[in-house]
Amino acid sequence: MASKLSWLQSRAVEASRLAYKEGGKYVKQLVEQNKHHVQEPATAEKCLLLSKQLFYTRLASIPRRYEAFWKELDQLKQTWKNSQPNEMNAEDAKTAALFGLELLVCCWAGKVVGRGFTFTGYYV
Question: Which family does the record claim for this protein (predicted)?
């Protein structure tokens, strides 16, 4: 156990050295590649405007996402109703599993929001 811990520690030190040495180059390259996304002048007012635009754009997309959710649920119901259990293929099973996971995540997010964005309880 101690040898694995020392090995893990040496690997972490090696990774941090690599990140320190190459991180600056990577960030500069990333900024250069994406400088067309940068807003000039970079002021607090511009940041506030962009954050408001993002918020209201997301808010405006809720009805479309809500309709898509119910449409997806109806499709899943029809698929479930029209097929026999032994006729269900892997793709239908994956779709049902992903839909169930989506519902679980939505319920979990609702719980977190309801608690005032505190992460306590069974899901941590």
Answer: Belongs to the ATPase g subunit family.
Determine the Cα–Cα distance for residues 66 and 5; give it in Å rounded to an integer. Answer: 49
Q: How many of the other CB atoms lie within 10 Å of CB of 100?
A: 11
Distances (CA, A) of 76 to 19, 27, 83, 107: 46, 44, 11, 19
Instruction: Give the single-character DSSP code of 87.
Output: G
- Give SS3 for 120: coil
Q: Among residues 73, 61, 60, which one has the least CA distance to residue 102?
A: 73
Can you list the positions of beta strands (E) in the chain?
none
Find all residues with CB under 8 Å of 34, minimum gap 6, and list them: none
Q: What is the pLDDT along the chain (124 residues), one digit of tens a residue?
A: 677 788 888 888 888 888 888 888 888 888 899 988 888 888 899 989 999 999 999 999 999 999 998 998 898 788 778 776 667 778 877 888 888 898 888 888 877 777 776 666 555 4
The pair phi, psi for residue 6, each rounded to 5°, is -70, -35
